[in-house]
Structures are given as structure tokens and as C-alpha cells.
Design a protein that fits this description.
With about 140 residues, the chain is α+β, with helices and mostly antiparallel strands. It has four helices and four strands; from the N terminus they run H-H-E-H-E-E-E-H.
Length: about 140
Amino acid sequence: MPRHDYAAGDSSIRLRFTRELLVACAAGLVLASMISRPEGDQKFRDSQIANASEPISGEEQKQCAFVIYTADWCEPCQRLKRALDKNPHLLRGVPVEWRDVDPHWPPNVVVPDIRYLEDGVVKARKIGYTDLESLAEWLDANVF
């Protein structure tokens, strides 16, 4: 097979081809991950969280509570914990149960996941980290 000698102008063609190839590979990986575990599939996400730990006991189901799923490896989760420790008044005395998730959860399961329960039924849910001001607004609009 003959060997090609590229002229100086051909290097830009090779760079452009390489860049396009990398973009195509990245797009393929994103599509493959969406097919194997669709982010929009709420049943999948709920089943993963439901399997994270034991259900709330019968005694706790007769009152209001927050159940907050976090992870030790999740920096936004740790910021949320610190923020609520410094500002407990935001939760207005409602008990909080912190549940740590397994570090091997699928990547499309989002923590922190804040759930407000009344009589064991989820009445409000907020997924992902927000600053304290936005959290307070969400609590006022959806919980209190």
C-alpha cells in the first residue's frame, strides 16, 4: 500500500476529521446511555430510590416528615446538609430523615432528593440542589 505524504495544508483536514470523529463518538456514547437508562423514566428513578433503604415505619406515617436522599460523595448534598443544619427554621420543626444512597447508583438518579410526606404519602418533591433562597420559596409554595 502506498504511503501518503501530506502537504502542510492537509494537517487542517486531519484535525477537522479528528474533531468530527470525537464529536460523533461522544454523541454515540450519550445516545447509548439514554437508551440503556432513560433519564425521563420516572418509574426507573422511583424504583431505585425506593430500594435505597427501609420504608418509613408505621409510627412515622401518622405525621409529617421530610425524607432527604443524599450521598457522601455528592458535594451538593453536603452543602444542603450544612445549609439546613445552620438554618433549621426553614423546615419549621418538621422532622427530617436523612438517607444516604449507594455510591453505585445509576448516574441518572439525581441527589439530593427532598420529599415531604404526610401520612406516609409524598406530597411534595424537589430533586437536585438549589440555593437556600430558592429552597425557602419552594417550601413556602409546596409544603407550608
